[in-house]
Amino acid sequence: MAMENRMRQFTEEVRQAACQFSFEGILEKVEPYGNGHINDTFLLTYAVGKMGCIRVILQRMNQKVFPEPEALMENVVAVTSFLRNRIVRNGGDPYRETLNVIPAKDGKSYVRTEGGFWRSFMFVADTCCYDQAEKAEDLYEAGMAFGNFQRLLADFPARKLHETIRDFHNTKKRLADFQKALREDAVGRAGRVQEETAFVLERKKDACFFQEMLERGELPVRVTHNDTKLNNVLLDARTRRGLCVIDLDTTMPGLAMYDFGDAVRSGASTAAEDEKDLSRVSLDLNFFEKYAEGFLKGCGGSLTQREISLLPMGAKVMTYECGMRFLTDYLKNDVYFKTRYPEHNLDRARTQFRLVADMEQKRQKMEAVIAGLQ
User: Fold this and answer.
1) CA distance 10 to 27
2) Distance between CA atoms of 170 and 167, rounded to whole angstroms?
3) I need a surface site. Which of 20, 25, 31, 189 has the fewest CB within 10 A?
4) What count of other Cβ atoms lies within 10 Å of the Cβ of residue 33?
5) How many of the other CB atoms lie within 10 Å of CB of 38?
6) What does the buried/exposed string (b/e) look like for 183-204 if buried means 16 or more CB atoms within 10 Å of the residue's CB?
7) Which run of H or of E encompasses 45?
8) What integer pLDDT is reported at residue 297 of this predicted model?
């Protein structure tokens, strides 16, 4: 009953928001869509006279995660507009190869109601996406899509974008946050994670590696997606080819190695992110090679040789950072990541650290893969 009441409330809130967007037709159906953990996402179906039905995506943005939704939508509009122009110039389909924002009736890119901030996108039909790769070619297609994203945005003035989550991939700052949580030990968990703490602290130089290069101006700042999971790429349902990069909320200034590294972390591991049996956790070098092949092909020569040579380091640092974030949240009593049981964040941290250790063992092989693809 509580769930039914919650859904009725959601449906009414959706209808109140929907009536403020430039939608056409009669709203016939509202249904939850996708499995995202941040925003509330709905698929709306409208009947349009004798033309049949059209579908749109409506989302309520999570202001706890993204406290400045206006700035976030400025980023999204700027990036998708730039992408559309590039896609049209290249002879592509701008309605399938990038997200298209549907404006509100007042011309803004969002609507504000008592329930929060809402935005809408055209629904990209005949597509699919996967949480985990079923075969190596899935990683290749994801790599192509994210590499193409880098290539198309290579001329975009990245520093004009807002930081929607400040210091998101500043691993040096993440280390400082971890050390603070360790000192404060809010719920008395520090004594249980001495081995994991030692693992983090032994790799302090890795935490500072990219940030200090950035501070010295040694790497180009690019438009980066910053959440390059496989399920953030829409694949063509018929050909299974990478088609469209979605979930642009964390698109902001960053490094190419961030996007590459996070994709490898999440897509080329042999085990789930919260696997308890650490003997099952390792880097699948075949998946790594396929993703790297697709990514570099998609980038189409837009990366520097220095960036390319640092891609394996990107995989290690992003995995290390993610594990550190899980461990920090565990020390703070699980205030950021959703958990299903008390040790969930600790299990997640352990899998990431095991994957880091495996990457360290396979460093030369990873570097050889990248060298062989150039």
Assistant:
1) 15
2) 5
3) 31
4) 16
5) 16
6) eeeeeebbeebeebbebbeebe
7) strand 40-47
8) 97
- Beta bridge partners of residue 118, listed in sequence order: 60, 111
| Cα-trace Rg, the chain | 21
136: CB partners within 8 A, 6+ apart: 286, 287, 290
258-289 as b/e, with b when 16 or more CB fall inside 10 Å?
bbbbbbbbbbbbebebbbeeeeebbbbeebbb
CA distance 265 to 263: 5
pLDDT score recorded for residue 3: 46
pLDDT score at 135: 87
Rounded CA separation 62/201 (Å): 33
> CB of 113 within 8 A of CB of 13?
yes
CA distance 146 to 296: 9
Q: What are phi and psi of 76, to 5 degrees?
A: -60, -45
* pLDDT, position 34: 79
Q: What is the DSSP string of 58-95?
A: EEE--TTT-S-HHHHHHHHHHHHHHHHHHHHHTT--TT
The label of the residue with tokens 């994801």 reads 142
pTM of the prediction? 0.92
> Which residue from 226, 224, 373, 217 is spatially nearest to 305, judged by alpha carbons?
373
* CA separation for the pair 71, 43 (Å, rounded): 24
Rounded to the nearest 10 degrees, the angle between the axes of helix 311-331 and helix 194-201 is 140
Please tell me the number of Cα atoms within 13 Å of 342 on its side-chain side: 3
251, 226 Cβ separation under 8 angstroms: yes
The residue count for the chain: 374
CA nearest to 133, candidates 262, 291, 282: 291
What is the three-class DSSP state of 303? coil
